[in-house]
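Students often ask why we bother encoding 3D structure as a string. The short answer is that it lets us treat folding as translation between two languages. Here is a chain of 92 residues written in the first language.
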Amino acid sequence: MSSQPSRADSLIEYPCRFPIKVMGARAEGFVHAVTTIAREFDPGFDAASIELRQSRGGRYLGVTITVTATGREQLDELYRTLSTHPMVKVVL
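And here it is in the second language, the structure alphabet:
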């Protein structure tokens, strides 16, 4: 077996700007919760870069955050932290 990183590991060159879409119920505090988590993993995260999109029925909110990714471990942990938050339904 080769000790080289797999192709999937090498597709992203770090550091880079990396968009993540987070979906949850449209509720007070949801955007703040996502912003707080983003800043834990990217201290330079700019909340002004957040994009919001409401679902057709208005019950859900899509929040796109763009973080500075420094490595796969950081992204994996960020996805894990977002996914386990009680207000979050889906992370893409």
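Translate back mentally: The CA atoms of residues 31 and 63 lie 7 Å apart. Keep this in mind for the problem set.
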